[in-house]
């Protein structure tokens, strides 16, 4: 069964199928006759031919564009190159861009689709766990500036998300774990039963048990879809998805995005956000211990290196979600109620050090 | 009396007032506390100090950014520089970008506002006739690629448009005339009474009679607001605003945007679109003659240089609005009914040559 992200006219399905079936399934939700598939030079090796063949088998005209793998590609310069290619390939307002890859490919392809001729259709075909459970769903697209990540972007919902769980077989283990951090997040912020399921099945997930992965991804997408459906442009509830991300982003920025993967930084961020919630008596010691235990079980870090507090604070106050220099954390209580909390630097210091 | 562009939650006023009153009037429709005013090094000399003083008098924090005047600035590179400045100045999601200037400043500032942190507020303060009657209203924002104009952009409605007619006193005459082409367009596509008023008052407009200009701008904005209110993202009716623009764009592109101003190219485009309508017996010889006469009265060109037909055709088929290489013209009949017509190359050739 597909999931649906309910956004009125902009509703779209999250389709679980083989890459070979993608073309056929897309005929249900995309009217375009021409696709530009964007991928990176890593994913290209594994799946580009398959997706092109699948699209062409349905009569679609397909052109492709390959960018270098890695966060370094998520720039306005790369976006400009892709926009120029779209023009050269003759994409018009009825064409569709397909993002085949992880978060970088999805984000930049979405930005290109959002801005080419003021917006054309696009579909996400995520091939990493992180992209499958998080970045491919919800319509947030962006590129980086040298000074800040995801600072230039748009809300541009895809027409469909195609998830082939088998693509995770080619994913490096560290990348699998980084995706698990977001999976755990959904259990913490929204669903006690799922949290307990994760505790039982974490070894299966790490061992690439396809059925377990499929369930975890579906449940994660379900939760994200429900939240995005209620608050598309993050006026309120959607900010709960930032649980663990305020400190996480600061740690990533502090280490120049080199030391931690996104999920590792978020894992540490979730631990400290939970500690703040514990100190505020919003959650029990038991829930806090369970969170810590599950993160460890996923092979993710729970503590960070000894950075001077001033440097951490500086990054926290310059976060995109900060407001007039005030630090905002997404917290949840024992019953998974979301609280958007302003945290005083002293409170952060007492928890972090 | 202000005009309102009716777009539900995104409705906004077109406010006619002195630049000195802009700050006070903006307190009614902008919640931001911080403005980044973007202008060019030409308009800067005349109005930047005034607008800053007016904003600061209301307690707004104001930062400014000046780009070189001219179409050459409307690039992704300039946009990137502005986005970096916004970040350096500490603009957050609650800040507002104000575009002070003509179409280039309005388009690129709007693009920056549409993409900075996935979209922040912006206001338009147009200082050219073309921007006051056309580009500042309707939310189309964009930058150019070397290969094509306005190809990268978004729909991002301003929170308000501030029109101070007196700014036209510093506008070069050729720029005044280019704006008059769009004013005439509104009379042709939508309002017989306005068309007749223009015929009577064209000399007043050219002589910078402030009352006449104010009326012409208001009526033009009213017509554009009504059309945009019915069709924000150009699914249908809004395309009537492209009257004269299909050939106009081709002529601009053929001459590398150097020979004709936008309005001059549109004027010629309107003549030939009218000729097609005449040949199709959609309009009378009399209406055609009146259109030609009014365009001449405004000091605008009605014929174009002798380009090889193949070159014209090539530009027409690569237009952003072309569809699978088919050429689409916006036409109107005698009763100002809009017809979106596919025009065969033979028909174009017979009219143009």
Automatic annotation (TrEMBL), chains A, B:
Enzyme Commission code: 4.2.3.4
Domain 3-dehydroquinate synthase C-terminal: from-to ranges: 179-322
Binding site for NAD(+): 103-107, 127-128, 140, 149, 167-170
Pfam families tied to this protein: DHQ_synthase (PF01761), DHQS_C (PF24621)
Cellular compartment(s): Cytoplasm
Binding sites annotated in the UniProt record for Zn(2+): 182, 245, 262
Keyword field contains Transferase: no
Cofactor: Zn(2+); Co(2+); NAD(+)
A Gene Ontology biological process term: chorismate biosynthetic process
Boundaries of every 3-dehydroquinate synthase N-terminal domain copy: 66-177
Gene3D superfamilies registered for this protein in UniProt: 3.40.50.1970, Dehydroquinate synthase-like - alpha domain
CC cofactor note: Binds 1 divalent metal cation per subunit. Can use either Co(2+) or Zn(2+).
GO cellular component, one term: cytoplasm
Catalytic activity: 7-phospho-2-dehydro-3-deoxy-D-arabino-heptonate = 3-dehydroquinate + phosphate
Molecular function as annotated in GO: 3-dehydroquinate synthase activity; metal ion binding; nucleotide binding
NCBIfam families named among the record's database cross-references: aroB (TIGR01357)
Protein purpose: Catalyzes the conversion of 3-deoxy-D-arabino-heptulosonate 7-phosphate (DAHP) to dehydroquinate (DHQ).
Protein name: 3-dehydroquinate synthase
Taxonomic classification: Bacteria, Bacillati, Bacillota, Clostridia, Thermoanaerobacterales
């Amino acid at each position: 069964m597909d999931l649906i992200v309910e956004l009125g006219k902009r509703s779209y399905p999250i389709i679980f199928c083989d890459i070979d079936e993608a073309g056929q399934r897309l005929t249900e939700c995309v009217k375009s006759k021409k696709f530009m598939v964007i991928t990176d030079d890593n994913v290209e090796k594994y799946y580009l031919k398959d997706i092109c063949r699948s699209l062409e088998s349905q009569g679609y005209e397909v052109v492709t564009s390959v960018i270098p793998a890695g966060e370094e590609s998520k720039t306005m310069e790369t976006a400009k190159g892709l926009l120029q290619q779209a023009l050269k390939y003759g994409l018009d307002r009825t064409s569709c861009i397909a993002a085949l890859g992880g978060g970088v490919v999805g984000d930049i392809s979405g930005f290109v689709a959002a801005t080419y001729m003021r917006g054309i259709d696009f579909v996400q075909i995520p091939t990493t766990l992180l992209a499958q459970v998080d970045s491919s769903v919800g319509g947030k697209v962006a590129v980086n500036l040298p000074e800040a990540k995801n600072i230039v972007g748009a809300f541009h919902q895809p027409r469909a998300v195609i998830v082939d769980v088998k693509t995770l077989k080619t994913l490096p283990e560290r990348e699998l774990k980084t995706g698990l951090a977001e999976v755990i997040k959904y259990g913490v912020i929204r669903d006690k039963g799922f949290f307990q399921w994760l505790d039982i099945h974490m070894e299966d997930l790490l061992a690439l048990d396809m059925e377990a992965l499929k369930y975890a991804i579906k449940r994660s997408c379900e939760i994200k879809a429900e939240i995005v459906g209620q608050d598309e442009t993050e006026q309120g509830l959607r900010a709960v998805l930032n649980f663990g991300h305020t400190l996480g982003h600061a740690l990533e920025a502090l280490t120049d995005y080199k030391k931690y993967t996104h999920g590792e930084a978020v894992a540490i961020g979730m631990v400290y956000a939970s500690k703040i919630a514990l100190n505020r008596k919003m959650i029990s010691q038991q829930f806090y211990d369970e969170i810590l235990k599950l993160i460890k079980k996923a092979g993710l870090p729970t503590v960070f290196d000894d950075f001077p507090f001033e440097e951490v604070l500086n990054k926290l106050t310059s976060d995109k979600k900060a407001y007039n220099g005030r630090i905002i954390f997404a917290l949840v209580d024992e019953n998974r109620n979301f609280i958007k909390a302003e945290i005083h630097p002293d409170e952060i210091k007492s928890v972090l050090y």
